[in-house]
Amino acid sequence: MLPETIGTVRHLTSIRLSLVAIVLAAVLVLPSLSGGAPTSSEGLPAYFDPAEGGTPLDLFGVRFGQTIDTDLTLIIRTHAAWDPALINPLYGRTLCISLRSDAQPNTEGRLCAYPSPSARSGLSLRYTTLDQNGVQRGIRDLSTVVARPNTSTLRVTFAPSLLGLKPGLYHWSARSQYRDESGCPAPAGCQDTLPNAGENALTVGAGAAPVLRQRCFGAASRDTRSPCRNPRLARAVVPTPDEAVIGQNLPCTPLAQIGFILPCEFGVPAAAATSTIALIGDSHAAHWRAALEYASQEFKWRGVSITRSGCPLTKATPRLTPALRRSQCLRWNQQVPRWLANNPQVSTVFVVAHVESSVVVARGRSQYQAKMNGYAQAWRGLPPSVKRLVVIRDSPRSASRTFSCVRRAIARRNQAGLACARSRKHALSRDPAASAASRMRSPRVKSIDMTSYFCNRRKCFPVIGGALVYKDLTHLTDVFVSSLGPYIVRKISALDG
After folding, report:
1. pTM of this prediction?
2. Which one of 174, 266, 347, 479 counts the least CB within 10 Å of its CB?
3. Is the domain covering 218-493 a CATH 3.10.450 domain?
4. With the C-alpha atoms ordered 98, 102, 103, 106, is the resulting torsion angle positive or negative?
Protein backbone atom coordinates (compact mmCIF):
# COMPACT_ATOMS: atom_id res chain seq x y z
CA MET A 1 0.00 0.00 0.00
CA LEU A 2 1.20 3.53 -0.70
CA PRO A 3 2.36 5.56 2.32
CA GLU A 4 -0.50 7.27 4.11
CA THR A 5 -0.80 11.02 3.98
CA ILE A 6 0.72 12.60 7.04
CA GLY A 7 -0.49 16.10 7.88
CA THR A 8 -1.48 18.72 5.41
CA VAL A 9 1.80 20.35 4.65
CA ARG A 10 1.43 22.41 1.53
CA HIS A 11 4.65 22.97 -0.30
CA LEU A 12 5.30 24.52 -3.69
CA THR A 13 8.88 23.96 -4.80
CA SER A 14 10.62 27.10 -5.79
CA ILE A 15 10.80 26.92 -9.55
CA ARG A 16 12.16 30.02 -11.32
CA LEU A 17 14.27 30.31 -14.41
CA SER A 18 17.11 32.86 -14.36
CA LEU A 19 15.95 36.45 -15.00
CA VAL A 20 18.12 39.36 -16.08
CA ALA A 21 18.91 41.75 -13.24
CA ILE A 22 17.35 44.87 -14.76
CA VAL A 23 16.78 46.92 -11.63
CA LEU A 24 19.62 49.18 -10.54
CA ALA A 25 21.21 47.79 -7.42
CA ALA A 26 20.80 49.70 -4.19
CA VAL A 27 24.18 50.56 -2.74
CA LEU A 28 25.01 48.72 0.44
CA VAL A 29 24.26 51.00 3.36
CA LEU A 30 26.93 52.07 5.78
CA PRO A 31 27.37 49.94 8.86
CA SER A 32 26.03 51.30 12.10
CA LEU A 33 28.40 53.04 14.44
CA SER A 34 28.17 50.06 16.73
CA GLY A 35 29.38 47.83 13.95
CA GLY A 36 26.58 45.54 15.01
CA ALA A 37 23.45 44.07 13.48
CA PRO A 38 23.04 43.88 9.74
CA THR A 39 20.64 46.31 8.16
CA SER A 40 18.24 45.27 5.45
CA SER A 41 17.30 46.39 1.95
CA GLU A 42 14.85 44.54 -0.33
CA GLY A 43 14.53 42.09 2.51
CA LEU A 44 18.24 41.19 2.27
CA PRO A 45 20.47 41.36 5.36
CA ALA A 46 23.73 43.23 4.89
CA TYR A 47 27.07 42.18 6.41
CA PHE A 48 30.08 44.47 6.67
CA ASP A 49 33.84 44.30 7.05
CA PRO A 50 36.22 47.16 7.96
CA ALA A 51 39.05 48.18 5.65
CA GLU A 52 41.97 45.83 6.17
CA GLY A 53 44.21 44.93 3.27
CA GLY A 54 44.35 48.08 1.20
CA THR A 55 43.80 46.08 -2.00
CA PRO A 56 41.20 46.88 -4.67
CA LEU A 57 39.26 43.75 -3.65
CA ASP A 58 39.17 44.45 0.10
CA LEU A 59 35.60 43.56 1.07
CA PHE A 60 33.29 46.33 2.33
CA GLY A 61 29.98 44.46 2.52
CA VAL A 62 27.88 41.65 1.12
CA ARG A 63 24.17 40.99 0.76
CA PHE A 64 23.15 37.46 -0.21
CA GLY A 65 19.64 36.19 0.15
CA GLN A 66 16.26 35.38 -1.33
CA THR A 67 14.04 38.25 -2.41
CA ILE A 68 10.27 38.30 -2.36
CA ASP A 69 10.10 36.75 -5.85
CA THR A 70 12.19 33.76 -4.62
CA ASP A 71 15.26 34.50 -6.75
CA LEU A 72 18.61 34.76 -4.99
CA THR A 73 20.33 38.14 -5.14
CA LEU A 74 24.03 38.57 -4.43
CA ILE A 75 25.59 42.03 -3.98
CA ILE A 76 29.30 42.37 -3.23
CA ARG A 77 30.89 45.77 -2.58
CA THR A 78 34.56 46.51 -2.01
CA HIS A 79 36.20 49.49 -0.29
CA ALA A 80 37.93 50.58 -3.49
CA ALA A 81 36.99 50.80 -7.15
CA TRP A 82 38.20 48.10 -9.54
CA ASP A 83 38.04 47.30 -13.22
CA PRO A 84 36.36 44.03 -14.31
CA ALA A 85 39.58 43.04 -16.08
CA LEU A 86 41.19 42.84 -12.63
CA ILE A 87 39.21 39.68 -11.82
CA ASN A 88 41.17 36.69 -13.02
CA PRO A 89 41.55 33.42 -11.07
CA LEU A 90 44.64 32.56 -13.12
CA TYR A 91 46.42 35.50 -11.47
CA GLY A 92 44.97 34.91 -8.00
CA ARG A 93 42.42 37.73 -8.14
CA THR A 94 38.99 36.47 -7.15
CA LEU A 95 35.64 37.39 -5.59
CA CYS A 96 33.82 34.27 -4.37
CA ILE A 97 31.06 32.95 -2.12
CA SER A 98 31.51 29.56 -0.45
CA LEU A 99 28.26 27.71 0.19
CA ARG A 100 27.20 24.59 2.06
CA SER A 101 23.92 23.06 3.13
CA ASP A 102 23.14 22.77 6.83
CA ALA A 103 23.40 18.97 6.59
CA GLN A 104 27.01 19.06 5.38
CA PRO A 105 30.06 20.08 7.44
CA ASN A 106 32.19 21.28 4.52
CA THR A 107 31.83 23.63 1.58
CA GLU A 108 29.84 22.06 -1.26
CA GLY A 109 30.10 24.81 -3.84
CA ARG A 110 31.95 28.00 -4.71
CA LEU A 111 30.29 30.83 -6.62
CA CYS A 112 32.80 33.20 -8.23
CA ALA A 113 32.89 36.19 -10.52
CA TYR A 114 34.70 35.28 -13.70
CA PRO A 115 36.05 37.37 -16.62
CA SER A 116 33.75 37.42 -19.64
CA PRO A 117 34.72 39.73 -22.53
CA SER A 118 31.34 39.16 -24.20
CA ALA A 119 29.33 40.27 -21.15
CA ARG A 120 28.31 43.92 -20.89
CA SER A 121 29.81 44.19 -17.41
CA GLY A 122 32.89 42.17 -18.37
CA LEU A 123 31.95 39.55 -15.78
CA SER A 124 30.02 36.29 -15.58
CA LEU A 125 29.27 33.89 -12.75
CA ARG A 126 30.84 30.45 -12.40
CA TYR A 127 29.79 27.73 -9.95
CA THR A 128 32.23 25.02 -8.88
CA THR A 129 30.85 21.99 -7.04
CA LEU A 130 33.06 20.23 -4.49
CA ASP A 131 32.96 16.88 -2.73
CA GLN A 132 33.27 16.61 1.04
CA ASN A 133 37.05 16.42 0.72
CA GLY A 134 37.14 19.71 -1.16
CA VAL A 135 37.93 18.03 -4.48
CA GLN A 136 36.38 19.68 -7.52
CA ARG A 137 33.44 17.73 -8.96
CA GLY A 138 32.34 20.06 -11.74
CA ILE A 139 32.32 23.61 -13.08
CA ARG A 140 29.35 25.37 -14.63
CA ASP A 141 29.01 28.86 -16.11
CA LEU A 142 25.63 30.23 -15.08
CA SER A 143 23.22 31.72 -17.60
CA THR A 144 22.63 34.97 -15.73
CA VAL A 145 23.72 38.59 -15.96
CA VAL A 146 26.27 40.19 -13.65
CA ALA A 147 25.61 43.93 -13.27
CA ARG A 148 28.00 46.69 -12.12
CA PRO A 149 25.86 49.38 -10.43
CA ASN A 150 29.07 51.28 -9.67
CA THR A 151 32.81 50.72 -9.88
CA SER A 152 33.08 49.01 -6.49
CA THR A 153 29.98 46.78 -6.66
CA LEU A 154 28.70 43.74 -8.51
CA ARG A 155 25.14 42.48 -8.38
CA VAL A 156 23.58 39.30 -9.77
CA THR A 157 20.14 37.69 -9.47
CA PHE A 158 19.44 34.07 -10.29
CA ALA A 159 17.14 31.17 -9.47
CA PRO A 160 18.19 28.76 -6.68
CA SER A 161 17.72 25.92 -9.18
CA LEU A 162 20.79 27.15 -11.11
CA LEU A 163 22.88 25.98 -8.16
CA GLY A 164 20.74 22.92 -7.50
CA LEU A 165 19.50 24.36 -4.21
CA LYS A 166 16.39 22.87 -2.67
CA PRO A 167 14.43 24.70 0.03
CA GLY A 168 16.31 24.62 3.31
CA LEU A 169 19.03 26.19 5.45
CA TYR A 170 22.46 26.99 3.98
CA HIS A 171 25.60 28.72 5.21
CA TRP A 172 27.90 31.04 3.26
CA SER A 173 31.01 33.15 3.55
CA ALA A 174 32.59 35.63 1.15
CA ARG A 175 36.24 35.68 0.22
CA SER A 176 38.40 37.92 -1.95
CA GLN A 177 41.94 37.23 -3.04
CA TYR A 178 44.35 39.72 -4.57
CA ARG A 179 47.85 38.87 -5.69
CA ASP A 180 50.61 41.10 -7.04
CA GLU A 181 54.38 41.07 -7.01
CA SER A 182 54.81 43.73 -4.35
CA GLY A 183 52.56 43.82 -1.31
CA CYS A 184 50.58 40.61 -1.97
CA PRO A 185 53.00 38.00 -3.35
CA ALA A 186 52.18 34.45 -4.44
CA PRO A 187 51.03 31.95 -3.53
CA ALA A 188 48.43 33.21 -1.05
CA GLY A 189 48.46 36.91 -1.91
CA CYS A 190 46.21 39.14 0.23
CA GLN A 191 42.95 37.55 1.30
CA ASP A 192 39.88 38.98 2.98
CA THR A 193 36.91 37.03 4.32
CA LEU A 194 33.45 38.04 5.47
CA PRO A 195 32.71 37.21 8.20
CA ASN A 196 36.24 37.06 9.57
CA ALA A 197 35.25 33.86 11.38
CA GLY A 198 32.32 31.52 10.93
CA GLU A 199 29.55 31.80 8.36
CA ASN A 200 26.31 33.62 7.64
CA ALA A 201 22.97 31.84 7.28
CA LEU A 202 20.91 31.68 4.11
CA THR A 203 17.40 30.28 4.03
CA VAL A 204 16.10 29.17 0.64
CA GLY A 205 12.34 29.20 0.90
CA ALA A 206 9.66 27.42 -1.06
CA GLY A 207 7.77 30.48 -2.12
CA ALA A 208 6.61 31.37 -5.60
CA ALA A 209 7.02 34.31 -7.90
CA PRO A 210 4.13 36.81 -7.89
CA VAL A 211 2.53 35.56 -11.11
CA LEU A 212 2.89 31.96 -9.93
CA ARG A 213 1.01 32.88 -6.77
CA GLN A 214 -2.01 34.14 -8.68
CA ARG A 215 -5.27 32.27 -8.39
CA CYS A 216 -5.77 29.59 -11.08
CA PHE A 217 -2.13 29.64 -12.22
CA GLY A 218 -1.04 26.65 -14.32
CA ALA A 219 -2.83 23.35 -13.92
CA ALA A 220 -5.31 24.86 -11.45
CA SER A 221 -7.06 26.45 -14.43
CA ARG A 222 -7.94 22.96 -15.71
CA ASP A 223 -9.16 21.50 -12.44
CA THR A 224 -12.59 20.11 -13.30
CA ARG A 225 -13.38 19.35 -9.64
CA SER A 226 -12.97 23.01 -8.64
CA PRO A 227 -13.22 25.05 -11.87
CA CYS A 228 -11.02 28.14 -11.75
CA ARG A 229 -10.74 31.08 -14.16
CA ASN A 230 -8.55 34.15 -13.79
CA PRO A 231 -8.76 36.68 -16.68
CA ARG A 232 -5.50 38.26 -15.52
CA LEU A 233 -3.66 35.12 -16.66
CA ALA A 234 -5.20 35.01 -20.14
CA ARG A 235 -2.15 36.60 -21.83
CA ALA A 236 0.52 35.63 -19.30
CA VAL A 237 3.34 33.28 -20.40
CA VAL A 238 5.72 32.15 -17.63
CA PRO A 239 8.46 31.36 -18.38
CA THR A 240 8.93 32.79 -21.86
CA PRO A 241 10.04 30.33 -24.58
CA ASP A 242 13.56 31.80 -24.51
CA GLU A 243 13.79 31.35 -20.74
CA ALA A 244 12.29 27.86 -20.89
CA VAL A 245 14.77 26.46 -23.38
CA ILE A 246 17.67 26.98 -20.95
CA GLY A 247 15.66 25.85 -17.93
CA GLN A 248 16.70 22.88 -15.84
CA ASN A 249 14.77 20.18 -14.04
CA LEU A 250 14.07 20.39 -10.33
CA PRO A 251 17.23 20.45 -8.19
CA CYS A 252 18.21 17.05 -6.89
CA THR A 253 21.01 16.24 -4.42
CA PRO A 254 23.51 13.72 -5.88
CA LEU A 255 24.01 10.42 -4.07
CA ALA A 256 26.85 7.94 -4.50
CA GLN A 257 27.23 6.64 -8.06
CA ILE A 258 27.13 2.87 -8.40
CA GLY A 259 28.05 1.62 -11.86
CA PHE A 260 25.83 3.42 -14.35
CA ILE A 261 23.35 4.41 -11.65
CA LEU A 262 23.63 8.10 -10.76
CA PRO A 263 20.89 8.58 -8.17
CA CYS A 264 19.93 11.88 -6.63
CA GLU A 265 17.70 12.77 -3.72
CA PHE A 266 14.62 15.00 -3.40
CA GLY A 267 11.62 15.27 -1.09
CA VAL A 268 11.91 15.38 2.71
CA PRO A 269 15.12 14.39 4.55
CA ALA A 270 15.49 10.68 5.27
CA ALA A 271 15.22 11.25 9.03
CA ALA A 272 11.80 12.87 8.63
CA ALA A 273 10.44 10.56 5.91
CA THR A 274 7.66 8.03 6.41
CA SER A 275 8.66 6.13 3.27
CA THR A 276 11.04 6.22 0.30
CA ILE A 277 9.98 6.34 -3.34
CA ALA A 278 11.98 6.18 -6.56
CA LEU A 279 11.39 7.92 -9.89
CA ILE A 280 12.91 5.83 -12.69
CA GLY A 281 13.09 6.25 -16.45
CA ASP A 282 14.36 8.43 -19.27
CA SER A 283 14.40 12.24 -19.51
CA HIS A 284 10.60 12.26 -19.53
CA ALA A 285 10.72 10.80 -16.05
CA ALA A 286 13.14 13.53 -14.93
CA HIS A 287 10.77 16.38 -15.72
CA TRP A 288 8.04 14.82 -13.52
CA ARG A 289 10.30 15.22 -10.49
CA ALA A 290 8.85 18.70 -9.87
CA ALA A 291 5.35 17.28 -9.33
CA LEU A 292 6.64 14.40 -7.22
CA GLU A 293 8.56 16.88 -5.07
CA TYR A 294 5.19 18.42 -4.16
CA ALA A 295 3.76 14.96 -3.49
CA SER A 296 6.80 14.04 -1.40
CA GLN A 297 6.27 17.06 0.83
CA GLU A 298 2.59 16.18 1.14
CA PHE A 299 3.11 12.51 1.96
CA LYS A 300 6.41 12.97 3.86
CA TRP A 301 8.35 10.92 1.32
CA ARG A 302 12.05 10.80 0.64
CA GLY A 303 12.49 10.58 -3.12
CA VAL A 304 15.32 9.08 -5.17
CA SER A 305 15.57 9.95 -8.85
CA ILE A 306 17.27 7.40 -11.15
CA THR A 307 17.03 8.61 -14.73
CA ARG A 308 19.05 8.28 -17.91
CA SER A 309 18.40 10.24 -21.10
CA GLY A 310 16.90 8.10 -23.86
CA CYS A 311 16.83 5.06 -21.62
CA PRO A 312 13.50 3.92 -20.13
CA LEU A 313 13.22 1.01 -17.71
CA THR A 314 12.74 -1.90 -20.10
CA LYS A 315 13.90 -5.37 -21.06
CA ALA A 316 13.69 -4.45 -24.74
CA THR A 317 16.84 -3.32 -26.54
CA PRO A 318 16.67 0.42 -27.16
CA ARG A 319 17.44 1.67 -30.64
CA LEU A 320 20.12 4.18 -29.68
CA THR A 321 23.20 5.47 -31.46
CA PRO A 322 26.10 5.22 -31.17
CA ALA A 323 26.39 1.59 -30.09
CA LEU A 324 28.14 2.62 -26.87
CA ARG A 325 25.06 4.56 -25.78
CA ARG A 326 22.88 1.51 -26.45
CA SER A 327 25.16 -0.82 -24.48
CA GLN A 328 25.30 1.60 -21.56
CA CYS A 329 21.51 1.78 -21.49
CA LEU A 330 21.30 -2.00 -21.41
CA ARG A 331 23.77 -2.13 -18.52
CA TRP A 332 21.84 0.61 -16.69
CA ASN A 333 18.68 -1.47 -17.03
CA GLN A 334 20.50 -4.47 -15.61
CA GLN A 335 21.77 -2.45 -12.65
CA VAL A 336 18.51 -0.75 -11.65
CA PRO A 337 16.88 -3.89 -10.13
CA ARG A 338 20.09 -4.63 -8.22
CA TRP A 339 20.18 -1.10 -6.86
CA LEU A 340 16.57 -1.43 -5.70
CA ALA A 341 17.32 -4.81 -4.09
CA ASN A 342 20.21 -3.22 -2.20
CA ASN A 343 17.91 -0.37 -1.11
CA PRO A 344 14.82 -2.20 0.14
CA GLN A 345 13.53 0.96 1.82
CA VAL A 346 12.23 1.97 -1.64
CA SER A 347 8.68 0.63 -1.50
CA THR A 348 7.08 2.57 -4.37
CA VAL A 349 8.50 3.16 -7.83
CA PHE A 350 7.17 5.71 -10.34
CA VAL A 351 8.13 5.11 -13.98
CA VAL A 352 7.78 7.28 -17.07
CA ALA A 353 8.88 6.53 -20.63
CA HIS A 354 8.92 8.67 -23.77
CA VAL A 355 6.23 7.29 -26.10
CA GLU A 356 8.43 7.97 -29.14
CA SER A 357 11.38 5.92 -27.93
CA SER A 358 12.32 3.12 -30.31
CA VAL A 359 13.43 -0.46 -29.65
CA VAL A 360 14.91 -3.29 -31.68
CA VAL A 361 12.01 -5.40 -33.02
CA ALA A 362 12.05 -9.02 -34.14
CA ARG A 363 10.52 -9.81 -37.52
CA GLY A 364 6.76 -10.03 -37.37
CA ARG A 365 6.47 -7.91 -34.20
CA SER A 366 5.33 -4.31 -33.93
CA GLN A 367 7.18 -1.51 -32.15
CA TYR A 368 4.23 -0.96 -29.86
CA GLN A 369 3.96 -4.60 -28.82
CA ALA A 370 7.73 -4.91 -28.34
CA LYS A 371 7.78 -1.85 -26.09
CA MET A 372 4.81 -3.11 -24.07
CA ASN A 373 6.48 -6.48 -23.53
CA GLY A 374 9.80 -4.85 -22.63
CA TYR A 375 8.19 -2.68 -19.97
CA ALA A 376 6.15 -5.51 -18.46
CA GLN A 377 9.18 -7.81 -18.25
CA ALA A 378 11.27 -5.11 -16.58
CA TRP A 379 8.57 -4.42 -14.00
CA ARG A 380 8.20 -8.09 -13.18
CA GLY A 381 11.96 -8.21 -12.59
CA LEU A 382 11.91 -5.65 -9.78
CA PRO A 383 12.63 -7.02 -6.29
CA PRO A 384 9.71 -7.86 -3.94
CA SER A 385 10.68 -4.91 -1.72
CA VAL A 386 9.00 -2.75 -4.38
CA LYS A 387 5.39 -3.10 -3.29
CA ARG A 388 3.88 -0.72 -5.81
CA LEU A 389 4.83 0.46 -9.30
CA VAL A 390 3.02 3.51 -10.67
CA VAL A 391 3.19 4.34 -14.38
CA ILE A 392 2.76 8.04 -15.18
CA ARG A 393 1.37 8.28 -18.70
CA ASP A 394 3.65 10.27 -21.01
CA SER A 395 2.57 13.82 -21.78
CA PRO A 396 1.35 15.23 -25.11
CA ARG A 397 3.81 16.56 -27.67
CA SER A 398 4.12 20.11 -28.92
CA ALA A 399 4.86 21.01 -32.56
CA SER A 400 7.92 22.51 -34.22
CA ARG A 401 6.00 25.74 -34.82
CA THR A 402 4.77 26.05 -31.23
CA PHE A 403 7.49 28.31 -29.82
CA SER A 404 7.42 30.74 -32.74
CA CYS A 405 3.64 30.85 -32.43
CA VAL A 406 3.86 31.60 -28.71
CA ARG A 407 6.42 34.35 -29.33
CA ARG A 408 4.12 35.98 -31.91
CA ALA A 409 1.17 35.73 -29.52
CA ILE A 410 3.17 37.41 -26.77
CA ALA A 411 4.24 40.22 -29.12
CA ARG A 412 0.65 40.76 -30.33
CA ARG A 413 -0.88 40.43 -26.86
CA ASN A 414 -2.94 37.43 -27.98
CA GLN A 415 -3.84 34.44 -25.83
CA ALA A 416 -1.00 32.06 -26.68
CA GLY A 417 -2.69 29.03 -25.15
CA LEU A 418 -5.64 29.29 -27.54
CA ALA A 419 -3.82 30.72 -30.56
CA CYS A 420 -1.13 28.00 -30.54
CA ALA A 421 -3.15 24.96 -29.42
CA ARG A 422 -2.62 21.69 -31.25
CA SER A 423 -5.23 19.08 -32.13
CA ARG A 424 -5.37 16.33 -29.54
CA LYS A 425 -5.14 13.55 -32.10
CA HIS A 426 -1.78 14.89 -33.30
CA ALA A 427 -0.40 15.85 -29.89
CA LEU A 428 -1.31 12.74 -27.92
CA SER A 429 0.09 9.36 -28.93
CA ARG A 430 -0.77 5.97 -27.48
CA ASP A 431 1.50 5.13 -24.57
CA PRO A 432 2.82 1.53 -24.56
CA ALA A 433 3.81 1.83 -20.89
CA ALA A 434 0.29 2.81 -19.88
CA SER A 435 -1.11 0.01 -22.06
CA ALA A 436 1.26 -2.52 -20.49
CA ALA A 437 0.16 -1.46 -16.99
CA SER A 438 -3.50 -1.87 -17.95
CA ARG A 439 -3.03 -5.29 -19.51
CA MET A 440 -0.98 -6.71 -16.66
CA ARG A 441 -4.02 -6.58 -14.35
CA SER A 442 -1.63 -6.72 -11.41
CA PRO A 443 -2.48 -5.20 -8.01
CA ARG A 444 1.17 -4.20 -7.84
CA VAL A 445 1.07 -2.08 -11.03
CA LYS A 446 -1.09 1.03 -11.33
CA SER A 447 -1.14 4.00 -13.69
CA ILE A 448 -1.79 7.73 -13.50
CA ASP A 449 -3.06 9.77 -16.45
CA MET A 450 -2.70 13.56 -16.19
CA THR A 451 -3.79 14.27 -19.79
CA SER A 452 -6.87 16.25 -18.75
CA TYR A 453 -4.58 18.95 -17.35
CA PHE A 454 -2.94 19.36 -20.77
CA CYS A 455 -5.86 18.89 -23.15
CA ASN A 456 -9.60 19.08 -23.58
CA ARG A 457 -11.45 16.70 -25.89
CA ARG A 458 -10.20 18.44 -29.03
CA LYS A 459 -7.09 20.47 -28.26
CA CYS A 460 -3.86 20.35 -26.24
CA PHE A 461 -2.50 23.69 -25.07
CA PRO A 462 1.07 25.05 -24.93
CA VAL A 463 0.19 27.67 -22.30
CA ILE A 464 -2.16 26.75 -19.46
CA GLY A 465 -3.26 29.20 -16.78
CA GLY A 466 -0.35 31.49 -17.69
CA ALA A 467 2.25 28.71 -17.43
CA LEU A 468 4.27 27.69 -20.49
CA VAL A 469 3.93 23.92 -20.74
CA TYR A 470 6.89 22.97 -22.95
CA LYS A 471 10.57 23.86 -23.00
CA ASP A 472 11.11 21.93 -26.26
CA LEU A 473 9.10 19.54 -28.43
CA THR A 474 8.48 16.95 -25.74
CA HIS A 475 9.95 18.11 -22.42
CA LEU A 476 7.94 20.06 -19.86
CA THR A 477 8.83 23.20 -17.91
CA ASP A 478 9.31 22.89 -14.17
CA VAL A 479 6.91 25.79 -13.74
CA PHE A 480 3.99 23.89 -15.25
CA VAL A 481 4.92 20.49 -13.77
CA SER A 482 5.16 22.09 -10.31
CA SER A 483 1.62 23.40 -10.74
CA LEU A 484 0.52 19.79 -11.31
CA GLY A 485 1.68 18.89 -7.80
CA PRO A 486 -1.69 19.11 -5.99
CA TYR A 487 -3.39 17.12 -8.76
CA ILE A 488 -0.87 14.30 -8.89
CA VAL A 489 -1.36 14.08 -5.11
CA ARG A 490 -5.07 13.64 -5.78
CA LYS A 491 -4.36 10.90 -8.33
CA ILE A 492 -1.96 9.09 -6.00
CA SER A 493 -4.45 9.24 -3.13
CA ALA A 494 -7.10 7.66 -5.38
CA LEU A 495 -4.94 4.67 -6.40
CA ASP A 496 -6.14 2.60 -3.47
CA GLY A 497 -9.74 3.59 -4.05
Report:
1. 0.64
2. 347
3. no
4. positive
Q: pLDDT (tens digit, 9 = 90+) per residue, 9-66?
A: 333 333 332 322 222 233 333 333 223 333 444 568 889 999 887 899 999 999 999 8
